[in-house]
Write a structure and sequence with these properties.
mainly alpha; 2 strands
């Protein structure tokens, strides 16, 4: 499990670096058009920084899959939650974004809350195989929520910032769908082509594709740091919820741990509420700041 945690830490760093590279490239690419998905994808990948970000994201995904195969889902997501600290440091030191005190507090509270949620359920033993009925219910519910948020984001009266936040949360929820499906595949008995021919492979693929477009569009029109942070929060909460319901990872082994988890959840909500705060880029990076 220790090696799985190490892979999760590396994945957290690479994931946030990938988001920042993709944001730099996305704002330079033409606007994504729902009616022209292939053309929009081609436009995104013609942007050098988006391509670099996507390559880094592939590396992060490979590390993530490795971590999921070696450690409980809640532990992996707890480590990835701490990656929000990487986001803050990378954004300020290397990408020219300025985070206000409110955003630093929000990121810190959220990362700590998510870590507590994951770690308080990681110590007890739990069955290696989850419930198929619970998997279907959880994946279906989260997928519907993500799709609904994408649909709501298309309403004309919404501001660009609100649309970006909705799409970021939707992308995160759908990334969570993909994570839970991948975790199921890593623990299921090998089927055809080592389990790759499975309805859950298709589920992960469909959720991942929709999340790809939703995330890219949110990076084009939203404020970079808050959109990335809320995408990460939604993905982590979805995956942690899946770990509890589908894979029977414990809510806590006693009243203290259960109470700590509930309090940590409140911290996550409070921290997420603090993150949508006006951000400014330094002069050198104003041309790539999606908030302008």
């Amino acid at each position: 499990m220790i090696f799985g945690v190490i892979l999760a830490i590396a994945s957290a760093l690479a994931t946030n670096l990938a988001y920042l590279f993709k944001q730099r490239g996305a704002v330079l690419a033409p606007a994504i058009k729902v009616r022209h998905p292939l053309r929009s994808a081609a436009d995104l990948f013609r942007s050098k920084w988006f391509l670099v970000g996507w390559i880094v994201a592939l590396v992060a995904w490979g590390l993530h899959v490795g971590a999921l195969s070696l450690a409980p889902l809640s532990v992996v997501q707890a480590v990835l939650s701490g990656g929000l600290a990487f986001l803050a440091v990378l954004a300020e030191r290397f990408f020219g974004f300025h985070l206000g005190r409110r955003q630093w507090v929000g990121l810190t509270i959220t990362a700590a809350g998510l870590a507590v949620i994951g770690l308080t359920g990681a110590g007890a033993n739990h069955p290696r195989h989850g419930s198929l009925a619970a998997l279907i219910a959880v994946e279906g519910a989260i997928f519907v929520i993500g799709a609904a948020l994408v649909r709501v984001s298309t309403r004309r009266h919404l501001s660009s910032r609100a649309e970006g936040l909705l799409l970021g949360v939707a992308a995160g929820a759908l990334f969570g769908v993909s994570d839970v499906a991948i975790k199921w595949l890593t623990e299921a008995a090998p089927g055809p082509l080592l389990g790759l021919i499975s309805p859950w492979t298709l589920t992960a693929l469909i959720a991942g594709v929709i999340a790809f477009y939703a995330s890219a569009r949110s990076l084009q029109i939203g404020k970079a740091v808050e959109v990335i942070a809320l995408t990460s929060v939604a993905a982590n909460l979805s995956a942690i919820f899946g770990g509890i319901v589908v894979f029977h990872e414990p809510i806590g082994s006693g009243a203290f741990e259960i109470g700590a988890r509930l309090l940590a959840f409140c911290f996550v909500i409070a921290g997420a509420a603090l993150m949508p705060n006006p951000t400014r880029a330094t002069p050198a990076s104003r041309r790539i700041d999606a908030s302008k």
